[in-house]
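Posting this for the archive.
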Amino acid sequence: MPLDIYSTRAQLAAVEVLPREYSFLYDTFAADMGAVEDEKAIYDFRKGVKRMAPFVVPGTGGVLMERDGYETREIGFPTIAPERLLGKNDITGRSFGENVLGAMTPQQRARKQMTQDLIDMRKAVQRRREWMVRSVLLSGRLDIFEYTNAGRNINTTKVADYNFTNNYTPSTPWSSAGAKIDDDMREVFDLVYEGLGMVDVIVMDPDAASAMIHNSDYMKQFDAKNANMGDINTQYKGQGVRYWGRNADGVDMFSFSGKFIDDDGVYKRCLPSGTVIAGSRGILKVPHGPVMQVEDPGMNAEPKWYIKKEVPFRCGDVKANTISNRLTSCPTVVPFNVDAWAVMHVL
């Protein structure tokens, strides 16, 4: 029996081979943990502590030393579920990019549009994951605002607060004369190391990067192999990412000019002006919870569970004469160690 190309099983196979959209903060700082069976993410939470061994009187044995404590917490998986409708007007006229003479049939247009909708919705889901990672990196919090078709439901806001405290503001802004950029970086590195983290990557917004390269004192200390006649050999990586080379401690430095449309409909920077993030790759983990959906109508319908990162679904509305395509994902973001990175506010 041939496989129904519109079934969830067939669409799952198609979705899993589609390339995911690249997103800089997510791909740099998040470790994708895949899908899990639990309805809530259970994780160990701690803040880095360094204790010294005690002195003891000879011949009296040892002195009990307290183990570093941690808390076991849990967080629910929020649901992301963009949906697209396919109606008569979407398939009877010429589609975007189609031959002007309109060589495609309505059935062919419907299949093409369904594929494009899946691609678009996967990109939208990945942008939400990027937003979640951004939120945890900058504030140590994850605020989930749930929506219905009627708009945002302000009564069901969910908050996960990881008690992030590694914020640093230099005594002299980087754009001012007398700024000690290298000293500021070393202060922040020490802050992260004290929290049992490490720094192998620095990400700046373009304003902070501009202030850095226009600081003559800092440029004199910059790693000579990254300099040419007083200029840093920058490399544009695409999608708003520019590689600036390594600082004096051998840490890779990037600037990121990406923007997004926030829930209030306003374009915003992924990194606010003057923001610098110092940390290491994969400091946040992103597990995905199971997806439940009802796929059959009627009194005998039963829910189906999928242990997948993204689950597509297609169904028709006889009365409205439309077809809806939906893609559901249930990710959450949890830090391995909330003291393992720091955020600098340098302007």
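The chain has two domains: 8-13+24-50+73-160+287-330, 166-283+338-345. The helical segments are 8-17, 24-29, 88-92, 106-139, 181-194, 206-213, 216-221.
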